[in-house]
Backbone:
């Protein structure tokens, strides 16, 4: 996985994998509640992250490791994912079974930290990212899940449908190779091939006409000598 920036949408060239965006805010006042994160993702055509299996979990972990590697200045800050519970009319079920994905996914994959979820008033789920915290019973607080109060302020991760390479300029989108590939990312900021040809050809038309006129004039003079 090549380098990408906080808030940068990342897609994969094989078009089989979803696109993702890690929204990290260094300053705590800029971070958002669960509902604000959910709306932010949906406003851009995505959803708050749902995770299908351990493979996808590991992919997200690798992205976060790249984003937060030493020297980037990124500090502790958990990330909202799209798992939550409302518990209405389901009192007979155990608390961990009440959690559901906000995008409607039926995935049963879970990656809870030890002794989580604690339930009670904590109904929305974050992915831990606290590299400076002392390890607890479940080890370092990195990438496992924890339920938290929904009004707490955190970073968040969005998920989008696979994106076809665009034919018009797209701001802040990276296309990379398959997950785990060591090649560099390709930044897609240019227009497609056909629009680029148009931009090149149109400005040259006056020059071509001038050359044609000069050539015709020269031939005309030579014929009348």
Residues:
């Amino acid at each position: 996985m090549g380098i990408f920036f906080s808030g940068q949408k990342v897609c994969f060239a094989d078009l089989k994998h979803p696109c993702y965006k890690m929204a990290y805010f260094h300053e705590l006042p800029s971070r958002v509640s669960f509902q604000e994160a959910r709306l932010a993702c949906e406003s851009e055509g995505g959803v708050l992250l749902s995770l299908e299996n351990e493979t996808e979990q590991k992919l997200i972990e690798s992205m976060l490791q790249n984003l937060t590697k030493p020297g980037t200045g990124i500090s502790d800050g958990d990330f909202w994912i799209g798992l939550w519970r409302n518990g209405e009319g389901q009192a007979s079920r155990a608390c961990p079974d009440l959690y559901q994905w906000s995008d409607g996914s039926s995935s049963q994959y879970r990656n809870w930290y030890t002794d989580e979820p604690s339930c009670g008033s904590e109904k929305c789920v974050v992915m831990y990212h606290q590299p400076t915290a002392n390890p607890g019973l479940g080890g370092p607080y990195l990438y496992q899940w924890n339920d938290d109060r929904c009004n707490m302020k955190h970073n968040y991760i969005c998920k989008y449908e696979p994106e076809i390479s665009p034919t018009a300029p797209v701001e802040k989108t990276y296309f990379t190779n398959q997950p785990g590939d060591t090649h560099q990312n390709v930044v897609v900021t240019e227009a497609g091939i056909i629009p680029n040809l148009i931009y090149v050809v149109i400005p040259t038309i006056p020059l071509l006409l001038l050359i044609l006129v000069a050539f015709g004039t020269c031939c005309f003079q030579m014929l009348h000598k």
